[in-house]
Amino acid sequence: MDLQVLVATMHQKDYSLIDKMNINSDAIVINQCDENSENEIQHDGKKVKWFNDSDRGLSKSRNMALKHATGDICVLADDDLEYVENYSDLIIEQFKLHPQADIITFQVEGIEKKFKSYYKESRKLNYFTSMKISSVEVAFRLEKVKEQDIKFDENFGAGSRYKMGEENIFLAHCIKNGLKIAYVPVKIADLHIGESSWFNGYNKGYFISKGAQFTAMSKSLSLLYILQFALRKRNLYKKETSLMNALKIMLQGRSEYLKLM
Q1: How many H helices and E strands in the chain?
Q2: 47-66, pLDDT tens digit by residue?
Q3: What value does the mean pLDDT of the chain take?
Q4: Taking every annotated instance into account, which residue ranges of this chain make up the domain Glycosyltransferase 2-like (predicted)?
């Protein structure tokens, strides 16, 4: 069983990112910049396929990496990660221990500040619990994802029409297609936490994107997703807008996305 890290990045001028991220396994790097080229390099005995691409959008980057991926196990990565030394062995071990899991999510620890809190025990994930997952925590059996032709929705993610939610939509589609997701309390990386590239407060754009995200996850469950989010997260946005307005704008996002489907 071999592992491949799928890195999304932008405007890299050289290959130093590989060392900065402490990548010591096979990898695919999609570097969105102002040229189109590809190269394969050997790094500490491992194969790194490097693609420079003039297209834009995080989900387009993820899909390009998926297209070229060959590893048994693939790991989603951003360029602000620093992997622990033995991440490859840790991840592969968990897939051997959980043969029923097609996707496993791991722990990532913030460097500048706390990233998030994690459960101390392993557990299965469903539609609702998978909404808490970030892309940098995700590893999956490539064969299972490709069998179902699951890709990232290119309407979502940094650089796209809707700025968030691409990993949650991806995981929801995996569950819908019968893939099993598990969480394990195993740390695989540290994360530099800087300013968000998309979050500018709980404004109209935020709620439009949320409504669209929930609809992309599941048309039939989207109204329930919208309602539970508006109620559950009310304390976060109540200083900026009302519950009814948040619901109204998310429903607007839902209607907008339905026209794209």
Answers
A1: 9, 10
A2: 999 999 999 999 999 999 99
A3: 96
A4: 28-128
> Which single residue is written with the structure tokens 């900065």?
20
Burial of 66 (0-12, 13-18, 19+ CB in 10 A): buried
Q: In Å, how far are 55, 84, 122, 202, 240 from 114, measured between CA atoms?
A: 33, 17, 21, 21, 25
CATH topology of domain 3-191: Spore Coat Polysaccharide Biosynthesis Protein SpsA; Chain A (3.90.550)
Domain ranges of the chain: 3-191, 204-258
- Mean pLDDT over 218-241 rounds to 95
E-assigned strands of the chain?
A: 3-10, 26-32, 37-43, 46-53, 73-78, 81-83, 103-110, 123-125, 138-141, 181-191
Q: How many residues does the chain have?
A: 261
DSSP string, 43-112: ETTEEEEEEEE----HHHHHHHHHHH---SEEEEEETTEEE-TTHHHHHHHHHHH-TT-SEEEEEEEESS
Positive or negative torsion for Cα 253, 257, 259, 260: positive
Name the DSSP letter for residue 197: S
pLDDT of residue 190 exceeding 90: yes
Nearest to 209 by CA among 261, 246, 243: 246
Distance between CA 251 and CA 112 in Å, rounded? 36
Q: Which two tokens stand for residue 99?
A: 């043969």
**Cα dihedral 87→144→121→190 (10° resolution):** 30
Closest CA to 9 of 42, 46, 56: 56
Distance CA(189)–CA(139), nearest Å, equals 12
